[in-house]
UniProtKB/TrEMBL annotation:
Name this polypeptide is given: 2-hydroxyacid dehydrogenase
Family in the record: Belongs to the D-isomer specific 2-hydroxyacid dehydrogenase family.
Cross-referenced CDD domains: LDH_like_2
Domain D-isomer specific 2-hydroxyacid dehydrogenase catalytic: 5-331
D-isomer specific 2-hydroxyacid dehydrogenase NAD-binding domain mapped to chain residues: 112-300
Gene Ontology molecular function: D-lactate dehydrogenase (NAD+) activity; NAD binding
């Protein structure tokens, strides 16, 4: 009998990829369009495992419910796991796995795309020329060559991004709680303190995980330490930035540009079509009103290669779990 997997937050593109990859595993996949939370956890009843994405809310109550249904595996098809109560999962004997590395190139390339679009006003030029307006007024940018980019977080994504920035001839300052000094020496980059990075970077890009220490890393206090007109790019997690403080910085012109692929309250909007509805999130609406801000819908990961890697890694972890093998992508609680 095939093991049953309840796949939540499933979009048409998820189904296509997972169905294709599942041909070699033979699981019974049931797709649900909803984000898993306490209000719909009953949909998992009868499954042997659940597969979730970034906007699921798997708190202690949801974990307890899953356990009561006999579910002992939560498979995240993403790298981040801040939306799962890992301690509760361990207490209930529920394993949690993730996809730590699906395509650092995809996210790093999207980061660079946001930087270039903001700098050269490509998003505004696209709309202007469609109306027959070919004026250059307001479109002056700057050479990326020779500018200083501060990279917060030098894991796999940060390292790939640094390679792209160096290819443009940019100076790189890096910060990481666990600096890779061998990498820095080989690449000719410099690790500095956060305060040094804030003070000397023309562009700051976030590639660190969301933890208690990094939540609202970008806030009034840190913004005040930055260069006037700094560009901030976030393709990591929404709550790395205090959005209201970011808006204050944009209004004061302290922040010159912002490129956001993530948003701290994105669960209510991202991945869904709300074009026929009135936007009730005043903060998001305010962000979207700035012509020097680009918001994309948490799509940095979204390439053919990344989707294939996500499906393969997730299904392999599920298969290993049911085979009683070691789970190399397991998430464990750290106090």
């Amino acid at each position: 009998m095939a093991y049953k997997i309840a796949v939540f937050d499933a979009k048409p593109y998820d189904r296509v990829t997972f169905d294709r990859v599942n041909e070699k595993y033979g699981f019974e996949l049931t797709y649900h369009k909803e984000h898993l939370d306490i209000n719909n956890v009953v949909l998992a009843n009868g499954a042997d495992a659940v597969c979730i994405f970034v906007n699921a809310v798997v708190d202690s109550d949801v974990v307890a419910k899953l356990k009561s249904y006999g579910i002992n595996l939560i498979a995240l098809r993403c790298a981040g796991f801040n939306n799962v109560d890992i301690l509760a999962a361990e207490k209930h004997g529920v394993k949690v796995v993730r996809v730590p590395d699906y395509s650092p190139h995809a996210i790093a390339e999207h980061t660079l795309a946001l930087m270039l679009c903001l700098n050269r006003k490509v998003h505004r030029a696209f709309l202007r020329t469609r109306d027959g307006n070919f004026s250059l007024v307001g479109f002056e940018g700057f050479d990326m060559y020779g500018k200083t980019v501060g990279v917060i977080g030098t894991g796999k994504i940060g390292k790939v991004a640094i390679g792209l920035f160096k290819g443009l001839g940019m100076n790189v300052l890096a910060y990481d709680l666990y600096p890779d000094n061998a990498f820095a020496e080989a690449e000719g980059i410099k690790y500095v303190t956060l305060d040094e990075l804030y003070a000397n970077s023309d562009i700051i890009t976030l590639h660190c995980p969301l933890t208690k220490e990094t939540e609202y890393l970008i806030c009034d206090e840190s913004i005040n330490k930055m260069k006037d007109g700094v560009m901030i790019v976030n393709t990591g997690r929404g709550k790395l930035i205090h959005t209201r403080h970011l808006i204050d910085g944009l209004l004061s012109r302290k922040i010159g540009y912002a490129g956001l692929d993530v948003y701290e309250e994105e669960g209510a909007y991202f991945y869904e079509d709300h074009s026929d509805a009135v936007m009730t999130d005043d903060v998001l609406a305010r962000l979207l009103s700035f012509n020097n801000v680009i918001v994309t819908s948490h799509q940095a990961f979204f390439t053919q290669e990344a989707m294939e890697n996500i499906a393969n890694t997730t299904m392999n972890s599920i298969s290993d779990f049911f085979a009683g093998k070691e789970l190399k992508n397991q998430v464990v609680y750290k106090a």
